[in-house]
């Protein structure tokens, strides 16, 4: 059974080519017909005008008037009019009396006979023209008077046969047809080139297939929960769905804009350009943490740009960060439990050795040190979660041979949630521990200061520090999990920046009094622009 709407299933390029060829043919044929009609009309008009001009010239000639006054006008006028006929390329020049008697004729046998055809108003002094079939066949002729003063004494008729006019017309039409053929060839060549390009652009698909692809793809792109960003080879945005607009806060007129002009993080821009395939990398975009996968886009072996998918990872990363803090706290408690077991074994051994006084002294001194550390941390931080974090970090520092100093106090009423303080302090302290891993001495300092309107957290270390280039890059938006070797800072620092911006603050990098890097985080939860 034949498929319905067969023409509609043909490639769009072929349909356009057929339409263009038909249009070119119609225009050329119409142009040839109109040009031929115009040439025919002009040929007859030019022939009539030439016949009138020749007849008037002959009628105004003194030779004609003088011959008409003579006894035998034919003897003088016949050779003269034939010469005029040949010179003017006309078919007959007839001089006649008012009673139509011919004095001259192209066919000498017709001389003396009566002129065949209308005279119009020529005998009264007018100029008369017509197309008439005479002794030489159909012709365009003119009749004009020969005047002697105010009196008409004879008539002159000059004619050009229709066959002669048609010969000239055929020449003109031939030129028109040749020009039309050339235009037709050029038009067909242009239509073929355009159809070929359209076929390549549409990949040979029909209009129904193109419409179906657009409708389905548009529905899918705008309904998926992942952001989709397509760039061309020059890095200009060619397609973006609703989720990508939301995640990247893109304007409505983003199509055609270079991605470098959208204010996105340099790392995120590089990932979206997709020079190489990347999978599930984390990037910071404003207040969001995005999982980005990118790859070059190719068609028929050609590189046509790149495609990037985006997923919002903010909430999941926040929970993961808190779980990481809990994990580290658990490890710290495990190390403390191990250390407590060792101390208990020491006390038991001293008692068994018969040295109870030394056992009591050892136990009370260790308890005093632990209590002093606990009092200092709890006194500085009212939030039990942050206090527990710092106690765990203190145990971890002791286990790794790091001197961790905590000073200052978190003022009451700052309004900063404990989870955000855990994010800031935990990530900065972890980075500091990593920075002093190879330092001597290994020292890390944490301090809190401020009032109810603002809280400043300082974390410094005795590590190698950061040069100006690294310091500028370490806080760059879009800092990826694949941190630059030597800096020791990954996405954790990006989370610190995010927490600071959330509370209307900022993060600064400087030189620590301990000799290494110092990160200063200012939190202003009541400031304008703080996240709700």
From TrEMBL:
Keywords, ordered alphabetically: ATP-binding, Cell membrane, Kinase, Membrane, Nucleotide-binding, Phosphoprotein, Transferase, Transmembrane, Transmembrane helix, Two-component regulatory system
Reaction catalysed by this enzyme: ATP + protein L-histidine = ADP + protein N-phospho-L-histidine
Membrane topology reported for the UniProt record: Multi-pass membrane protein
Protein name as catalogued: histidine kinase
Main location group: membrane
SUPFAM superfamilies: ATPase domain of HSP90 chaperone/DNA topoisomerase II/histidine kinase, PYP-like sensor domain (PAS domain), Sensory domain-like, Sporulation response regulatory protein Spo0B
Pfam families: HATPase_c, sCache_3_2
Keyword Transferase appears in the UniProt entry: yes
Source organism of the structure: Nocardioides humi
InterPro entries, per the entry: 2C_sensor_his_kinase, HATPase_C_sf, HATPase_dom, His_kinase_dom, PAS, PAS-like_dom_sf, sCache_3, Sensor-like_sf
Cellular localisation: Cell membrane
Transmembrane segment boundaries: 12-37, 173-195
Enzyme Commission numbers on file: 2.7.13.3
SMART domains: HATPase_c, PAS
Taxonomic lineage: Bacteria, Bacillati, Actinomycetota, Actinomycetes, Propionibacteriales
GO MF annotations, alphabetized: kinase activity
Keyword field contains Nucleotidyltransferase: no
Residues of the Histidine kinase domain: 421-527
């Amino acid at each position: 059974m034949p498929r319905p709407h067969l023409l509609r299933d043909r490639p769009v390029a072929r349909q356009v080519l057929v339409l263009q060829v038909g249009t070119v043919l119609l225009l050329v044929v119409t142009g040839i017909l109109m040009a031929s009609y115009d040439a025919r009309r002009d040929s007859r008009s030019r022939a009539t005008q030439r016949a009138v001009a020749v007849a008037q010239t002959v009628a105004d000639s003194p030779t004609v008037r003088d011959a008409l006054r003579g006894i035998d006008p034919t003897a003088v006028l016949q050779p003269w009019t034939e010469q005029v006929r040949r010179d003017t390329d006309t078919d007959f020049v007839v001089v006649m009396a008012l009673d139509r008697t011919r004095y001259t004729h192209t066919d000498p046998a017709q001389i003396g006979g009566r002129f065949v055809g209308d005279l119009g108003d020529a005998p009264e002094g007018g100029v008369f023209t017509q197309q008439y079939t005479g002794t030489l066949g159909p012709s365009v002729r003119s009749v004009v008077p020969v005047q002697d003063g105010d009196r008409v004494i004879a008539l002159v008729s000059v004619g050009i046969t229709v066959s002669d006019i048609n010969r000239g017309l055929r020449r003109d039409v031939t030129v028109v047809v040749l020009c039309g053929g050339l235009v037709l060839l050029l038009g067909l060549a242009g239509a073929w080139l355009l159809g070929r390009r359209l076929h390549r652009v549409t990949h040979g698909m029909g209009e129904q297939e193109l419409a179906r692809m657009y409708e389905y793809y548009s529905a899918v792109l705008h309904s998926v929960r992942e952001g989709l960003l397509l760039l061309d080879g020059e890095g200009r945005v060619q397609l973006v769905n609703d989720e990508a607009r939301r995640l990247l806060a893109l304007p409505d007129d983003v199509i055609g804009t270079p991605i470098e002009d959208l204010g996105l993080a340099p790392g995120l821009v590089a990932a979206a350009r997709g020079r190489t395939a990347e999978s599930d990398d984390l990037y910071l975009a404003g207040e969001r943490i995005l999982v980005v996968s990118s790859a070059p886009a190719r068609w028929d072996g050609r590189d046509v740009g790149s495609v990037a998918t985006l997923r919002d990872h903010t909430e999941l990363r926040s929970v993961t960060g808190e779980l990481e803090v809990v994990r580290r706290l658990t490890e710290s408690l495990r190390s403390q439990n191990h250390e407590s077991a060792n101390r208990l074994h020491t006390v038991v051994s001293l008692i068994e050795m018969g040295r109870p006084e030394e056992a009591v002294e050892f136990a009370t001194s260790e308890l005093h040190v632990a209590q002093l550390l606990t009092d200092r941390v709890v006194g500085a931080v009212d939030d039990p979660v942050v206090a527990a974090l710092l106690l765990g970090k203190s145990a971890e520092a002791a286990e790794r041979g790091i001197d961790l100093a905590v000073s200052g106090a978190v003022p009451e009423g700052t309004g900063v949630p404990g989870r955000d303080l855990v994010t800031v302090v935990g990530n900065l302290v972890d980075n500091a521990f990593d920075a002093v891993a190879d330092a001597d001495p290994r020292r890390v300092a944490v301090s809190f200061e401020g009032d109810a309107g603002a809280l400043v957290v300082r974390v410094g270390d005795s590590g190698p520090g950061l040069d100006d280039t690294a310091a500028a890059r370490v806080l760059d938006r879009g800092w990826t999990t694949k941190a630059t070797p030597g800096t020791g800072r990954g996405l954790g620092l990006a989370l610190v920046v995010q927490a600071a911006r959330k509370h209307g603050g900022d993060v600064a990098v400087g030189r620590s009094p301990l000799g290494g890097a110092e990160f200063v985080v200012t939190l202003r939860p009541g400031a304008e622009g703080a996240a709700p």
